[in-house]
Design a protein that fits this description.
513 residues; alpha/beta; FAD/NAD(P)-binding domain; seven-stranded mixed β-sheet; 30% helix; binds flavin-adenine dinucleotide; binds 2-acetamido-2-deoxy-beta-D-glucopyranose; Flavin_amine_oxidase
């Protein structure tokens, strides 16, 4: 299975382009998100200090990104997170700790426990208590979870999460309150609806994080920005103004072979490397933002095309602090639109104890198809829709004009092309291993290459370190290519759940094999 790419032409492509001298390095780390920063840290720890980190943006952090928004009573702007916002799964005393939680504490990130029972529910006629449906969903979920364990241990065919829910007796159909509850429990986490998600691997993903560490999510509101911890990690091995970090550098072409890798950038510069680790998102790979030479092999293209890139859009509003109209004792508001599932469903108040009290900041999240719709609209169009929903939620209240309004457009960012990855129904570890495996001396790593933590920051952390370790071993003459599969099959055999196929962390769960 282990791959070899036989391409005689590449030795020449990598070494010689007439009239241009490329910067040389042992390892090119492509991207300075958490994966790239952890990969270079592993290289550095293994004594491989001859590396370059190449990054599109002007700062470290990738999808952990913030902006200034609105202002406080003294005219100072607030910082809000546009990408990752939670540490998901913390840890228990004496038990395994989420590495992200360890780092959040090391860098003193201000954060607060997200209390999911602190929720007020609404329909289009105002407050409307349908919280009992949350318990109904949880009962069905417990069945889906066990059923997913059975699919895994018996090596059975996967199905959609929707099928799993139906078999468990959860059938929301035209009950829009039930649809809103389902969105809150599922789509809000996976950035896809249950029809578009794998039953088995959605549960694997939940179990690995929340049953290994803990079922808590802590919301980070640090005014220095969540990426403080990624910068902290970077500067454990980089010097200030380290010339090994190339910011504002857009990679356009990657030429790979069994002998090396050449990187060409939009500014005309180039790099030749013995090895490279590409940490660009699944969305970037799917969108052909970067050209690979030679074209990626069929099995690799299948790996990239099989998985999906979700979009999660947070829409921020600031209201005058003396005209806050929502009940600030709740952390969450859940809205059930009468016609459209996923239409401005989950609202979070930052004007709350433990967050940014007095800020007047409220934000609403949409995902998937509603994200694409909203991200294609102008700010004014979206603001009008958002205010119309608030008028339905608070029928006898004058909703003031917001003093600030902003949302990112993740699906359109050429360096992200979405928010985080998801596994469609019927996927297998072999299919995923094709997304993960190297081609020649080019390795791939990112949240999307983690079979168990995909989507979460802990995915980027563990996959970055793993790729850095493997490539450091290669530099030190222990070449260890990844497995890949030319011919795919419809389910994963129980014995395949091992490190060869990227199944690294779930050994803590006893599946009975
Ligand atoms: C809206 C949103 C909410 C999220 N919420 C959470 C959360 O609450 N908790 C959680 O754990 N996770 C969350 N995530 C997921 C988390 O942010 C990601 O899993 C993680 O940051 C991915 O890190 P990465 O290094 O793999 O990828 P990235 O951070 O995308 O790093 C890749 C880097 O490559 C660079 N790059 C791309 N193309 C090029 C190019 N052509 N040339 C040069 N450089 C390039 C990018 O600029 C980027 O810096 C969220 C993500 C989003 C977007
Ligand atoms: C975090 O806070 C502690 C206690 O205030 C302090 O000793 C430590 O230096 C801080 N660490 C960082 C990285 O700011
Ligand atoms: C969470 O919120 C609920 C409802 O407001 C409250 O009863 C409970 O005490 C809160 N839990 C924690 C840990 O703050
Ligand atoms: C998920 O965890 C539940 C509860 O421990 C278990 O019953 C189930 O088998 C697990 N499923 C998977 C796919 O890991
Ligand atoms: C790093 O660069 C910045 C901006 O160019 C400069 O202000 C700073 O003094 C430099 N720091 C060091 C340690 O050289
Ligand atoms: C990079 O790829 C583009 C698009 O395929 C191509 O036009 C260009 O010639 C390539 N550049 C290099 C330096 O290979
Ligand atoms: C998105 O999908 C939901 C079903 O999950 C549907 O109700 C809604 O109308 C869709 N929105 C768009 C913009 O297609
Ligand atoms: C709004 O006002 C109308 C008319 O006074 C009243 O019937 C209705 O109950 C009020 N709705 C709410 C949510 O307070
Ligand atoms: C993982 O399983 C596959 C298929 O059963 C096997 O070929 C491979 O050697 C195993 N790898 C490890 C590390 O056990």
């Amino acid at each position: 299975m282990a791959g070899r790419i036989l391409l005689g032409v590449l030795a020449f492509a990598v070494s010689a382009t007439v009239g241009q001298t490329c910067r040389e390095t042992k390892v090119a780390v492509l991207g300075a998100g958490l994966t790239g920063i952890e990969a270079a840290k592993s290289l550095s720890n293994a004594g491989v200090t001859d590396f370059l980190i190449v990054e599109y943006n002007s700062d470290i952090g990738g999808r952990v990104a913030h902006t200034t928004f609105g202002q406080d009573a003294n005219g100072n702007p607030y910082t809000v997170e546009l990408g990752a916002n939670w540490v998901q799964g913390l840890g228990t005393p004496g038990g395994p700790q989420n590495p992200i939680w360890v780092l959040a504490q090391r860098y003193n990130l201000s954060n607060t426990y997200s209390n999911y029972t602190s929720i007020e529910t609404f329909s289009s006629t105002g407050a409307n208590d349908f919280t009992s449906l949350l318990n109904d969903f949880d009962d069905a979920y417990a069945y889906v979870e066990q059923d997913a364990g059975y699919i895994l241990t018996e090596g059975l065919q996967d199905r959609s999460f929707r099928s799993g829910l139906s078999l468990a007796g959860w059938k929301p159909q035209r009950d829009m309150a039930a649809q809103a509850v389902e969105w809150w429990e599922f789509d809000w986490e996976y950035a896809y609806c249950p029809e578009e998600s794998s039953q088995e691997f959605a549960i694997v993903n939940y179990n690995t994080t929340f049953y290994q560490f803990s079922e808590e999510n802590n919301y980070v509101w640090d005014q220095r920005g969540f990426n403080t911890f990624i910068k902290g990690e970077a500067y454990t091995y980089l010097k200030p103004n380290d010339t090994r970090l190339l910011l504002n550098t857009v990679v356009t072409n990657i030429t790979y072979s069994d002998n090396g890798v050449r990187i060409d950038n939009a500014d005309g510069s180039c790099i030749t490397a013995e090895y490279a680790i590409c940490t660009f998102s699944l969305g970037v790979l799917q969108n052909d933002d970067v050209t690979f030479s030679p074209a990626l092999p069929a099995w690799k293209q299948q790996g990239i095309a099989t998985f999906s890139m979700g979009t999660y859009t947070k829409i921020f509003l600031q209201f005058p602090s003396d005209q806050v109209f929502w009940d600030t004792s709740y952390q969450f508001l859940l809205y059930a639109d009468p016609y459209t599932r996923g239409y401005y469903p989950v609202w979070q108040s930052l004007d709350a104890e433990g967050f940014l009290p007095g800020s007047g900041i409220l934000f609403v999240t949409v995902v998937d198809n509603e994200s694409y719709r909203v991200e294609a609209q102008t700010d004014d169009e979206t603001l009008a829709e958002v205010l119309a929903v608030l008028r339905l939620m608070y029928p006898n209240t004058t909703i003031p004009e917001p003093t600030a309004f902003f949302y990112p457009r993740w699906s359109l960012e050429p360096w992200a092309r979405g928010s985080y990855s998801n596994w469609p129904p019927g996927t297998t570890l072999e299919m995923h291993q094709n997304l993960r495996a190297n081609v020649g001396r080019l390795w791939f790593a990112g949240e999307h290459t983690s079979a168990e933590y995909f989507g979460f920051l802990q995915a980027a952390y563990t996959e970055g370190q793993a790729a850095g370790d493997v490539v450091a071993a290669c530099v030190n003459r222990v070449y260890a290519p990844e497995a890949y599969y030319e011919n795919l099959r419809g389910s994963t055999t129980p014995t395949e759940y091992n490190a060869t196929n990227g199944w690294i962390v779930s050994s803590f769960l006893t599946y009975g094999f």
